[in-house]
Amino acid sequence: MYICPMYSSGLIKGTLKTIILNLLKNENRMYGYEITQKVKDLTGSKIKITEGALYPTLHALEKQGDLITEKEYIGKRVRKYYKLTDQGKTTVQERVNEFADFIQTMRFLLDLDSPKQNV
Amino acid sequence: MYICPMYSSGLIKGTLKTIILNLLKNENRMYGYEITQKVKDLTGSKIKITEGALYPTLHALEKQGDLITEKEYIGKRVRKYYKLTDQGKTTVQERVNEFADFIQTMRFLLDLDSPKQNV
DNA sequence: TTGCATACTTAAGATTCTTATGTATATTTG
DNA sequence: CAAATATACATAAGAATCTTAAGTATGCAA
């Protein structure tokens, strides 16, 4: 198993819930493993969600009422599908808007909008 | 002391060093308290660096060789100025580039580039 | 039949932040 | 001028969130 270049210093920290919720906004329902693969695919392996981060986060989102689960058996193997609740749909918008605002602030703070950064 | 709306869920997490280093890139040298005020001003209080986060981070950056200090006395009060080392200047570029890349990835992942998000 | 992919769970440890406490000087304001 | 606020640093305890690791088990391909 190879290691690919990922973001250091925990940039992902704090965005994991937002990513998961937003995926479910577009996909209706997904199961855990599917989420990790989708994120890996969409980001060209720049973001890889580890299982140790994913499953506790899914459980937390369910506990706080943003997700509900549907268990299904694929052969003998359990698969837990997650989907947004109505509350979850609101939470997604809040989270995404907040993140959009945050990166605007950061772009300004780090001078990322001005041209000729690397001259 | 009033509480103003800040970013929840630790979005700032992982970006603090980047913010500090980038400020010092433009300002030559700054002291801790000055940094907190500058960030508060530049972000309209959207980002407030607490002392408990700031000082340990400054110490860590010094320890890892990105910053050096100059103590000065203003009257009887100590003030520690921080400035970038040569290594620190490299680190800033790396950190900022990484963060710029990260928000590009996130903008794509969260669909922030497509118009009519909030219609 | 061995290894890899799929699929979920949880515990231990690391990192990074918040909150709280402590110390001390300087300035503003009633 | 006394009290409150601002300046200025430090650090410890606790919370949140992630990584790493270990465990369990099925399905498939070489």
Give an overview of the whole structure.
The structure is a homodimer of 119-residue chains. Chain A has helices at 16-27, 32-42, 51-63, 86-109; strands at residues 29-31, 67-74, 77-84. With 119 residues, the first copy, chain A, is of the alpha+beta class. The first copy, chain A, has a single domain (16-109), classed as Winged helix-like DNA-binding domain superfamily/Winged helix DNA-binding domain (Arc Repressor Mutant, subunit A, Orthogonal Bundle), CATH 1.10.10. Chain A has a three-stranded antiparallel β-sheet. Chain A contains four helices and three strands, in the order αβααββα. Chains A and B meet through α1 and α4 of A and α1 and α4 of B. Chain A binds a DNA duplex (30 and 30 nucleotides) through residues 9-10, 12-14, 16, 31-33, 50-57, 59, 74-80.
Could you name the key traits of this structure?
homodimer, 119 residues, alpha+beta, Arc Repressor Mutant, subunit A, three-stranded antiparallel β-sheet, 3 strands, 50% helix, globular, DNA-binding
Concise overview:
The structure is a homodimer of 119-residue chains. Chain A contains four helices and three strands; from the N terminus they run H-E-H-H-E-E-H.
